[in-house]
Write a structure and sequence with these properties.
By secondary structure, the protein is of the alpha+beta class. It is built from five helices and six strands, in the order E-H-H-E-E-E-E-E-H-H-H. About 15% of the residues are buried. About 10% of the residues have low confidence.
Protein backbone atom coordinates (compact mmCIF):
# COMPACT_ATOMS: atom_id res chain seq x y z
CA UNK A 1 0.00 0.00 0.00
CA UNK A 2 1.37 3.37 -1.01
CA UNK A 3 1.61 6.09 1.60
CA UNK A 4 1.57 9.62 0.17
CA UNK A 5 2.67 12.43 2.46
CA UNK A 6 1.54 16.01 1.91
CA UNK A 7 4.37 18.51 2.23
CA UNK A 8 5.08 22.15 1.43
CA UNK A 9 8.29 23.69 0.21
CA UNK A 10 9.47 26.98 -1.24
CA UNK A 11 11.44 27.03 -4.50
CA UNK A 12 12.91 29.75 -6.67
CA UNK A 13 11.41 28.25 -9.85
CA UNK A 14 9.51 25.23 -11.10
CA UNK A 15 12.54 23.86 -12.95
CA UNK A 16 12.75 20.10 -12.63
CA UNK A 17 16.22 20.12 -11.06
CA UNK A 18 15.27 22.82 -8.54
CA UNK A 19 12.15 21.02 -7.32
CA UNK A 20 13.95 17.64 -7.01
CA UNK A 21 16.82 19.27 -5.10
CA UNK A 22 14.42 20.97 -2.69
CA UNK A 23 12.10 18.03 -2.06
CA UNK A 24 14.70 15.25 -1.74
CA UNK A 25 17.34 17.41 -0.03
CA UNK A 26 20.07 16.85 -2.61
CA UNK A 27 22.26 19.41 -4.35
CA UNK A 28 21.05 20.90 -7.60
CA UNK A 29 24.12 19.42 -9.28
CA UNK A 30 23.17 15.95 -8.00
CA UNK A 31 19.58 16.37 -9.20
CA UNK A 32 20.91 17.47 -12.60
CA UNK A 33 23.06 14.31 -12.79
CA UNK A 34 20.04 12.11 -11.95
CA UNK A 35 17.97 13.79 -14.67
CA UNK A 36 20.67 13.56 -17.34
CA UNK A 37 21.39 9.90 -16.52
CA UNK A 38 17.77 8.91 -17.24
CA UNK A 39 16.63 8.30 -13.67
CA UNK A 40 13.80 10.85 -13.80
CA UNK A 41 10.41 10.63 -15.47
CA UNK A 42 7.75 13.33 -15.70
CA UNK A 43 4.25 11.95 -16.20
CA UNK A 44 5.76 8.52 -17.00
CA UNK A 45 7.98 9.89 -19.78
CA UNK A 46 11.75 10.06 -19.34
CA UNK A 47 12.94 13.65 -19.08
CA UNK A 48 16.63 14.48 -19.66
CA UNK A 49 16.42 18.28 -19.46
CA UNK A 50 17.16 19.79 -16.01
CA UNK A 51 15.51 23.06 -17.11
CA UNK A 52 12.16 21.37 -17.86
CA UNK A 53 9.40 23.50 -16.30
CA UNK A 54 6.93 21.60 -14.12
CA UNK A 55 3.23 22.41 -13.96
CA UNK A 56 0.44 21.71 -11.51
CA UNK A 57 -0.55 18.01 -11.28
CA UNK A 58 2.70 16.81 -12.89
CA UNK A 59 4.00 13.55 -11.41
CA UNK A 60 7.76 13.22 -11.14
CA UNK A 61 9.31 9.78 -10.56
CA UNK A 62 12.94 9.52 -9.46
CA UNK A 63 14.43 6.02 -9.53
CA UNK A 64 15.65 5.13 -6.05
CA UNK A 65 13.97 8.11 -4.37
CA UNK A 66 10.23 8.01 -5.00
CA UNK A 67 7.53 10.13 -6.59
CA UNK A 68 6.08 13.55 -6.12
CA UNK A 69 3.02 15.30 -7.48
CA UNK A 70 2.64 19.06 -7.56
CA UNK A 71 -0.81 19.82 -6.15
CA UNK A 72 -0.95 23.59 -5.50
CA UNK A 73 1.12 26.66 -6.35
CA UNK A 74 1.20 29.91 -4.41
CA UNK A 75 3.40 32.91 -5.09
CA UNK A 76 5.40 34.10 -2.13
CA UNK A 77 5.57 37.89 -1.91
CA UNK A 78 9.21 37.92 -0.81
CA UNK A 79 12.10 37.36 -3.19
CA UNK A 80 10.04 35.97 -6.10
CA UNK A 81 9.73 32.53 -4.53
CA UNK A 82 7.01 29.95 -5.20
CA UNK A 83 5.39 27.95 -2.43
CA UNK A 84 4.34 24.50 -3.64
CA UNK A 85 2.17 21.90 -1.97
CA UNK A 86 2.81 18.40 -3.14
CA UNK A 87 2.19 14.77 -2.47
CA UNK A 88 5.33 12.74 -1.78
CA UNK A 89 5.71 8.98 -2.09
CA UNK A 90 9.18 8.04 -0.87
CA UNK A 91 10.67 4.72 -1.89
CA UNK A 92 11.39 2.39 1.03
CA UNK A 93 10.54 5.08 3.55
CA UNK A 94 11.37 3.84 7.00
CA UNK A 95 8.64 4.87 9.39
CA UNK A 96 9.61 4.77 13.06
CA UNK A 97 8.33 1.58 14.64
CA UNK A 98 7.54 -0.12 11.33
CA UNK A 99 10.67 -2.21 10.91
CA UNK A 100 9.13 -5.37 12.38
CA UNK A 101 5.61 -5.10 10.98
CA UNK A 102 5.86 -8.25 8.85
CA UNK A 103 7.95 -10.24 11.29
CA UNK A 104 5.85 -11.92 13.90
CA UNK A 105 6.53 -11.65 17.63
CA UNK A 106 7.43 -15.34 17.56
CA UNK A 107 10.21 -14.57 15.06
CA UNK A 108 11.67 -11.90 17.30
CA UNK A 109 11.67 -14.14 20.37
CA UNK A 110 13.10 -17.10 18.49
CA UNK A 111 16.85 -17.08 19.21
CA UNK A 112 17.63 -18.96 16.01
CA UNK A 113 15.58 -16.68 13.73
CA UNK A 114 18.43 -14.29 12.95
CA UNK A 115 20.94 -17.14 12.59
CA UNK A 116 18.70 -19.17 10.26
CA UNK A 117 17.82 -16.27 7.97
CA UNK A 118 20.23 -14.35 5.81
CA UNK A 119 20.41 -10.59 5.97
CA UNK A 120 18.78 -10.38 2.52
CA UNK A 121 15.80 -12.55 3.49
CA UNK A 122 15.26 -10.56 6.69
CA UNK A 123 15.35 -7.30 4.71
CA UNK A 124 12.87 -8.78 2.22
CA UNK A 125 10.52 -9.67 5.08
CA UNK A 126 10.93 -6.22 6.60
CA UNK A 127 10.06 -4.48 3.32
CA UNK A 128 7.09 -6.73 2.49
CA UNK A 129 4.56 -4.97 4.70
Amino acid sequence: MDHWTNIQTVVSSLRLDTVIASVFNVSRQRSKEMIESGKVKVNWTEENRPDFMLEILDIVSIRGYGRLQIQKLKDEPKKDKIKIELGLLEKNKKIKGSYFMSITPNDIHNKDFFQQNSKASIQKKLMSF
